[in-house]
Write a structure and sequence with these properties.
Blueprint: E1 2-3, H1 15-25, H2 33-39, E2 43-48, E3 57-61, H3 66-75, E4 78-82, H4 87-99, E5 104-108, E6 125-132, E7 136-140, E8 148-152, H5 153-161, E9 172-176, H6 188-200, H7 208-218, H8 222-225, H9 229-241, H10 251-262, H11 268-297, H12 300-325
Antiparallel strand pairs: 1-6, 2-3, 4-9, 5-6, 5-9, 6-7, 7-8
Helix pairs in contact: 1-2, 2-10, 6-12, 7-12, 9-11, 10-11, 11-12
């Protein structure tokens, strides 16, 4: 058996930030999960309803692995990514790093992992691997999935080789913290303003605040969009609340990130953004509950109410991001400067 020493597998909520935390803590950089999510400009929104999809999907974050790239660039981390079409080479890439004492991030299709209770294909899942033996791989996943877990080498190979939406070619990656890393506190404003800019000016109407507004108009018709509302509507709501989002479609994580930032920076714009995202988090959970109720009862009025909540969310989040976008124009003041 080969295992990397001193792995900190603390409870986390979202898969990509969970893996990032493992890799960075192993090198002595310990940031909270909300801070990792926020510094990676992870918040977004997409209303996704492709021709081959059985039911629409509401997503609340940037595309898989964009958060990792953003965080690495913002903190000056050395991100090394390996991809290959060869299963043999893919295993050699990972085993060599673990043999040398380094945990490795992996992008996987969670459907194939032994420890996953919910068998749904998701090719953008990320976990940190820290060991292996002749039969199993040892991973750190979210608290919901068990934290420090194991899966057979066969299932791991299937999860890494899977093809389909959001999958990667046996992607593995490492992060190296430089000897004199920039202070995370100094990267807060660029991370927030970049996130706000993308959210306020999306390239298509399915994204950002425009996407939430579109969802508000389309969700009321969801009972006609499915032949099994008792299955599809509660599942859509579950993905918003419990599928590694931290609750409220990642808004709880972003709210908590902004709360940490308020302790560092003295800014009225930042406090406004935090207040509005606290409100948004409550509204997202309310919308998910209404969608679940509509699926269980068949009551179209619940979806009408959910649509109204989503239209309100579009306004709340737009106003929050407008306030946060102004951070770049403020003089820098630490919270300790308050009188």
């Amino acid at each position: 058996m080969t295992k990397v020493r001193d792995i900190d597998a603390r409870g986390t909520q979202h898969c990509e930030t969970s893996a990032l935390g493992v890799l960075l803590r192993h090198q002595g950089l310990d940031l909270s999960e909300p801070m990792l999510f926020g510094l990676g400009s992870g918040l977004s929104f997409i209303y996704w309803d492709g021709k081959n999809m059985g039911f629409p999907f509401l997503g609340g974050r940037v595309r898989p692995f964009d958060l990792t790239r953003n965080l690495a660039a913002r903190l000056g981390l050395d991100l090394v990514v390996q991809e290959t079409t060869s299963p043999r080479r893919a295993w050699e890439n990972v085993a060599a790093l673990i043999d040398a004492g380094h945990p490795v991030g992996l992008q996987l299709d969670s459907y194939h992992l032994d420890y996953f209770g919910s068998k749904v294909h998701f090719g953008g899942h990320v976990a940190a691997m820290y060991g292996y033996d002749d039969h199993d791989a040892y991973l750190v996943d979210t608290d919901q999935q068990g934290g420090a877990v194991s899966t057979s080498l066969t299932s791991l190979a299937q999860a890494r080789a899977a093809r389909g939406p959001m999958t990667a070619r046996h992607r593995s990656f490492t992060l190296t913290v430089p000897g004199n890393p920039p202070s995370p506190d100094g990267r807060i404003v660029p991370a927030i303003t970049a996130c706000a800019g993308a959210f306020l000016d999306p390239p298509i109407a399915n994204l950002g605040h425009r996407g939430i507004q579109k969802a508000g108009k389309l969700v009321p018709a969801w009972l006609q969009r499915t032949d099994d509302p008792r299955r599809d509507l509660p599942q859509a709501a579950m993905l918003m609340e419990k599928a590694g989002t931290g609750g409220a479609l990642f808004r709880n994580l972003y709210r908590d990130f902004l709360a940490e930032c308020v302790q560092v920076l003295d800014s009225d714009h930042l406090r406004t953004g935090h207040r509005l995202y606290s409100e948004a988090a409550i509204l997202w959970t309310e919308a998910a509950a209404l969608i679940t109720k509509a699926g269980e009862s068949g009551d179209a009025q619940c979806l009408e109410q959910a649509g109204t909540v989503l239209c309100e969310l579009s306004r709340v989040e737009r106003e929050a991001m407008e306030a946060l976008s102004r951070l770049g124009g403020e003089p820098r003041r630490s919270s300790s400067a308050r009188g």
